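Below is a complete specimen:
___
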Amino acid sequence: MPYRWNRARVRATALLLLGLLTTPAALAEKTRNMIQGELTDWYFANTFGTGVYRIGDRTVTILTLPLSYTLREPDDDRWGIRLKLPLSLGLYSLDNAVDDVLNRNFATFAAMPGVEFEKEIGRNWVVKPTFSGGYAQDVSKGNRSTLYELGLRSSWGRSFERVDFVLGNALLYAGNAAQDGITQHLGLLSTGLNFIMPTGGALAGRASNFGVHVVHYLFFNDIDFFLTPENRRSVNQQYEVAFTFGTYRPLEILGATFDRIGVGFRAGENFFAVRLVTGFVY
């Protein structure tokens, strides 16, 4: 079941995510050194979602609120339309949790509004063309950048006995133009498998399920993470495994509607992340 957001869900999810970010694992040291004013790590900070990310020996905590509003549901004759407004905050230098949060707050802010269309073009086959464009700023240094992303996501699913299966694919192209004229471009191809299995139990009177997804991410050109002016790490591909627990009928928690929640682990070439997962990415 797609995860839909409204104002009540946003308020409740913000409380949930902020609670997660105050855990010891989330209060990690972050280095976001700039090279010639360039906003680095822009794609993962705005796109990968809420979590704790480690690149080499550096760690960053990202809080993302994936706000969206459905203008029209898809049907046989018309495309569905969904407006998106993901907001991302990046936290860093959290050696002393209380002091740093109070005095330094966050290091980066990014907003990338966009639109996503959705239609079933074949039996159980859904495609989602998407485009987003936005803005990012390093709050501590004042560096700014414009962002964009366009591409296509698709998913195909069916049930085998009692297991629901989804195959997802995405082909995306993204870019970043910093205020100093430096630009970066990135191509991404990802493929994922998602399995949802009944647990045989119930939660709040609803049949519960257990989910597993595995995703491979291939970047046509490397993502560069600049750790210091003399040191950078490049990532060409990543793998993610996630485990979720949910119900077949959504639950209402603090005014928000959830059908699943879980944790994902993403790794590849000196990169490791622990992410909050609320559904399959396709």
Summary: Confidence is low (pLDDT under 50) at residues 1-10, 12-40, 99-105. DSSP finds three helices and 13 strands in the chain. The longest helix spans residues 7-21.
